[in-house]
């Protein structure tokens, strides 16, 4: 049994070492020669899995350790009897915590005493959007959801139009990339939509870069009254537009879902799928491989300001400004090819980032409101 896998998938040996031989290759440059004699192929979103890659190979199972599938030709796999599995929701909480950290930075920039004064519009109510909406609701935010496909299927839920979402203080995008559907998301945010946003608003994209028309966005950001923009995903990755990076308020290298917990859960979900395909017992769990976090506990007393305490704890786990600085640094590389290599290196060599659940928060004499907020975000509490 030969398993060909993207070299950046974590814990390959731990999960798959006793199933077969593992051959690690670069996901970005993976070729038909690399996979020709493989039985199982494991990829991430940087690998296009289609006829060109797999024709005449011995691959019978393809797994992607990501939530998206727009890099997979699902029709061709089905036509050729190749089993497929993705990892929906594996890193949803990681992306949610990324957005919460960005919101905390934005509230600080606007000098808000209470970050829940911000209204948040969420486009895409899948695993990430739904979890984000639930956490924001528990934190006291006013939230509006836009998801036309779900609105058609689930009439009992309240969804609003895209224009209503675009009127919120913060607009955050969590859609897959679709082209040939009743509600395509390719360049869904174009000139008309961008013109509706003002300097009093923040646009966040952690879904797919092509959901926003990059040329229109660059043009809009050069105009007066342009919104602030936080981008984690980009058109033409890894060779992204340095001019657009320079115009954004916050820029990160497609790492919103890169918490250790999220990445390892993706590996576990595909391990389970491979085990089912081969008829093997799936005895391994992600939790048994997670190391002790570098920071395990913080403590707040009755003197703590609630908003400050939330900011401190959130940023102790993750501060997106560090990733922003790293990305802007590599934009100084003159050649597009070299910038692409540097972009991929930022992701390959990404430092360990733990989720809020890894941090125990000790509260001494603090308010019930603060307790509720920490629980809503996902911290472990010690009262």
UniProtKB/TrEMBL annotation:
Pfam families per record: 2-Hacid_dh, 2-Hacid_dh_C, DUF3410
Pathway(s): Cofactor biosynthesis; pyridoxine 5'-phosphate biosynthesis; pyridoxine 5'-phosphate from D-erythrose 4-phosphate: step 2/5
Chain positions recorded as NAD(+) binding sites: 147, 175, 232, 257
Name of the protein: Erythronate-4-phosphate dehydrogenase
Role of this protein: Catalyzes the oxidation of erythronate-4-phosphate to 3-hydroxy-2-oxo-4-phosphonooxybutanoate.
This protein's UniProt keywords: Cytoplasm, NAD, Oxidoreductase, Pyridoxine biosynthesis
InterPro entries reported in the protein's UniProt record: D-iso_2-hydroxyacid_DH_PdxB, D-isomer_2_OHA_DH_cat_dom, D-isomer_DH_CS1, D-isomer_DH_NAD-bd, Erythronate-4-P_DHase, Erythronate-4-P_DHase_dimer, NAD(P)-bd_dom_sf, PdxB_dimer_sf
Ranges for domain D-isomer specific 2-hydroxyacid dehydrogenase NAD-binding: 111-256
UniProt-annotated location(s): Cytoplasm
Source species, domain of life: Bacteria
Stretches assigned to the Erythronate-4-phosphate dehydrogenase dimerisation domain: 289-378
Binding partners and assembly: Homodimer.
Main localization category: cytoplasm
Listed EC numbers: 1.1.1.290
Catalysed transformations (reactions): 4-phospho-D-erythronate + NAD(+) = (R)-3-hydroxy-2-oxo-4-phosphooxybutanoate + NADH + H(+)
Organism encoding this protein: Marinobacter xiaoshiensis
PROSITE patterns noted in UniProt: D_2_HYDROXYACID_DH_1
Similarity comment text for this entry: Belongs to the D-isomer specific 2-hydroxyacid dehydrogenase family. PdxB subfamily.
Domain (D-isomer specific 2-hydroxyacid dehydrogenase catalytic) ranges: 32-278
Active site: 208, 237, 254
Binding annotation for substrate: 45, 66, 258
Gene Ontology MF terms: 4-phosphoerythronate dehydrogenase activity
